[in-house]
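Appendix B, Record 12. Input sequence as logged:
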Amino acid sequence: MTEHTENPAVSKMKGAINHFTASLSGVHVTKDLALPIISSVRGRAAKALTRYLKLNNIEEINDTYNIPIEKYARFKRHVKRVAAFQVALVQLPRSLVVSIVSSYDVFLGDILRAAFYLKPEMLNGTERILTFKELVEFGNIDDARAYIIEKEIESVIRSSHIQQFEWMENKFVMPLRSGLDSWKHFVEATQRRNLFVHCDGIVSAQYIELCAKHGVEVGETSVGDMLHVDEAYLQAVWECVYEVGVKLAHVIWRKLSPSSLAESEKHLIDNAIELLEEKQYSLLAKILPFFVFDVKKHSSEANRRILLVNYCISLKFSGNSEEMEKVLAREDFTACDARFHLAEAVLNDHFEKAAKIMIEIGANNPKIPRHAYESWPLFREFRKSSEFGLAFKTLFGEDFKIEKAAGIVAAVDAVDATAQHVVEPAESGEEIEPEATATDTETSTPDE
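Logged structural output:
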C-alpha cells in the first residue's frame, strides 16, 4: 500500500485559501461583536450626558450651554466620551473595509506564489535578469527561482487591483472577469479603500472616473463628498471580496493543475459547508452557481451534485425557495445513490419520505454517518421534526437531543456584560456609574 503524498504546490494553494477565508471570518466576527458594543456604549454615554445636564439644570440655548465653571470639567468629560464613541462608530467600519481589502492583497500574493509553483514554466517568459554575482550568491537554481518569483509577485502587488486582473488574464491566458457580476462592486470597494487610506474618505476624480468606467452607479456622489460605511455596505464588501477571492483561487488552481481537480472540489465543498454552518447563505449562493453550472469539467458527478445540493441549501435558507425548486426540478436524481434522494426530499420538506430514506440508508453507511444527521446544515429544519426524531431513534437506539454549546452562550453573556460596563471608565477615584433609573434620578446629587 502506497501512501499518497500531496503536491507541495497544491498545499500552498490550499493554505492560501484557508488563510484568506480565516482572515475574513475574523473580520466578520469583529464586525458582529464590536459594532453593537460601540453603538450600545455610545447610546449609554449620550444618556449619561443628558442625565448630567438635567440634574444640574443646564439647558441648551441655540446650540450652546451656559456651564458654571465648577461643573465644566465634568461636562467636558461627558461630551468627549460621546464624541469619542461617535468617531469609533465611523472609524471602525472604515477600518474593517481596509482590513478586508488588505486580506485580499495578502491572499493574492499567496495564490500567485502557489501558481508559480504549480506551473514553474510560467517563469520562462520573465524578462528579469540576474547578475553573475547574484547567481553565485544563490548557490542553486531553486533559490534563484524563489527570488524571481518573489520579484514577480512584488511587481504585481504594487499595481492597482484592476491592473492585477489584467496581468493575470494575460499570464494565465484566461478570462477572469467574464461573467463575474461582482467585479464592479469589487472595483468600487478597492477604490473606496484607497480613499479611506489616503484621503479620509473624500471622493476624488479618479474614484468617479473608474467607477463610471466599470459600470458602478455612484448616484449623486461627486468630487469632494465624504464616503462612509454603514453595516449593509460592510457586509456587501465582505461578501464581494470573499466571493472574488475564492472564485479566483479555484479557477487558477483548476487551470494550472487539472490532475488535482478532485482536491480542488473537495476543498470547495468543505468551504461551502463551513459557510452554511456560519449561515452565510447569500454569500454561498453567489459562489457556487459558477462551479455547478458554468465550469465544463468536474472530477465526478457526485462532487457536482454535492455542490448543487449545497447551493440549494443556500437558496432555501436565504429566502429563495422558488429558485431552489427550479434548480431541483431540472436535476435528475434517478440514478443517484440514496444520500441524494434524501437531500432532495429534505430540501422539498417531504419529511415523511426523508425519514423512510434515512432508515433505508441505515446506521452504518459511511457516506452519511451519525454525526452528519446531528450537524449537517442540510438537516437544520428536518432535525426539528417528529419524523426525524423517530427515524433517528430507530437507527441509533436513542432520542436525538440538541444541546447548546455552553461556551457560545458564555461568550454572548460576556458581550452583553461588556456593553453594560464600558460607558463610565473609572478615573481618579470615581466609581463607574450604572445606567440611570427612576430611583437614581430621585436620589442623585446634581453634580454627578
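The chain has a mean pLDDT of 87.
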